[in-house]
């Protein structure tokens, strides 16, 4: 299981978390999504390597901005 | 056209507005809904009188609290 972390800005509530989760879950290889509006932290996991750029694009699609943390 | 105003607490974003709107639109007689997360103001209009208690219940169903303003 590999995972990647991102910092998302602009989420304010559980609906925002759900919007980000819904988009990120559609990215190829994503099997697990942890997202917190309170901290802005997004952790994405899967058994295969995941394309960080695709995650950033998915967050953008949901209407938020993200930066990769590693 | 009659209208009623309510003050809603807890909305933080457009998703919250949409959640409140979706529930309030289902109340009998509601033909128009204006809702703002920024101000918390909810204005509900219709050609027939609308049951304030039903609006308060709808907002509660959406996960927020409201008080009637008149």
UniProtKB/TrEMBL annotation, chains A, B:
GO terms for molecular function: metal ion binding. Residues 2-67 form the HMA domain. SUPFAM superfamilies: HMA, heavy metal-associated domain. It comes from the Bacteria. Coiled coil: none annotated. InterPro entries: HMA_dom, HMA_dom_sf. CDD domains: HMA. This is Copper chaperone.
């Amino acid at each position: 299981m590999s995972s990647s972390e991102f910092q998302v800005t602009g989420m304010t509530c559980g609906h925002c978390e759900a919007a980000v989760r819904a988009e990120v879950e559609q990215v190829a290889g994503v099997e697990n999504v942890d997202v917190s509006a309170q901290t802005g932290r997004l952790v994405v996991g899967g058994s295969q390597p995941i394309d960080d750029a695709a995650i950033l694009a998915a967050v953008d699609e949901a209407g938020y901005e993200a930066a990769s943390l590693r």
